[in-house]
Amino acid sequence: MIKYISILFVLLPLGLLAQKQEGADFAQAKNTKTNLFLTPSDTFNKKRFYVSIGAGAGLYGAFSVGLWQAWYKDSELTTFHTFNDWNEWQQVDKMGHLYTAYNYSRWAYQGARWTGMKRRPAAWASAGVGMLLQTTTEVMDGYAQKWGFSWGDMTFNVLGSALFVGQELGWKEQRITMKVSSNPQKYPDLTFSGVGHNGTVSIRERTQSLYGTSFAERFIKDYNAQVNWLSFNIKSFAPASKVPNWLNVAVGYGAGNMVAGHGYSWTDKDGLRYAVDPNVLPRYRQYFLSTDIELSRLPIKGRLWRTLLYGIHHIKFPGPALEYNTLGQLKMHWLFW
Question: Which tens digit of pLDDT belongs to each residue from 278-313?
Fold first, then answer.
């Protein structure tokens, strides 16, 4: 997922260019003091269009080259091939594809509307941008021997962009948003023996090797910590209610005790094989119900604050959460990150 989240931060400046109040039309945004970073155009603006195209093409080119250099240049390459990774990571990675494709499309749409494009062509264009970014990475994977082009990934890429476009064309607003959170994990010092050799490894050593040690690395890479959320805005579905416009209810999906893509064994960089006991560390799935705050709907007028909030609106706001997992446990988290 690290490759996909990194693209989000590349696209962030483009999204900030076109931030606006949810539900406000162009005329209202233009004629009222909303402290926008840049006001969307109420008619098609060629200059803005070419600026947007140029900036987008430049960022896309720079990212594509940078991604290849960082991830694939030193990898063993082969002919283009597919790879069935559906059973890996309890499908947490697939939810990551849904999340990133949705947010690519959302940010691209803001840039398209800034140029004055009408809603329908802007929505379809943004979906195209989202799919272009996702497909570029998938094609590169297709030439890497240890990965491969994944039809499962592509399915969730399409679903993510479709989630955005469907709402924009059907409701003319985003009532359901995709968000992510990461709950820091404390891994035990449980030690397991090697398979066919006398070496040992602890769960902590394995997860540090797999997911990194810093907060940033673990936020992006640790599938045991990540939860992807569908966040529903209550007011949008019940306009007559008295709930605050910014209050959401969110459902999330995660998984735990994953020390390998699938199963309970792996081979390290030295070719040594290790395995954990599934009775001691069983893999499981998690389902969450929680509250959330839609930051883009908060009545904040200051330009700086709205810019900062827009930049993190795709991260779920911490709050109480009810968890059910496939170990048969029902848990209440009073503050879940």
Answer: 999 999 999 999 999 999 899 887 777 777 787 788
Check residue 11 and give its pLDDT: 43
Shared-domain flag, residues 110 and 254: no
Are residue 114 and residue 193 in the same domain, yes or no?
Answer: no
Mind listing the pLDDT tens digit for each residue in 155-178? 999 999 999 999 999 999 999 999
User: Are 297 and 173 spatial neighbours (Cβ–Cβ below 8 Å)?
Assistant: no
Whether pLDDT at 12 is above 60: no
Q: Which of 172, 201, 233 is the last residue of a domain?
A: 172
Domain ranges, residue 272: 175-337
- Give residue 39's pLDDT: 65
Total structural domains in the chain? 2
- pLDDT at 229 (0 to 100): 98
Q: Which of 104, 139, 172 is the last residue of a domain?
A: 172
Q: Do residue 144 and residue 245 come from a single domain?
A: no
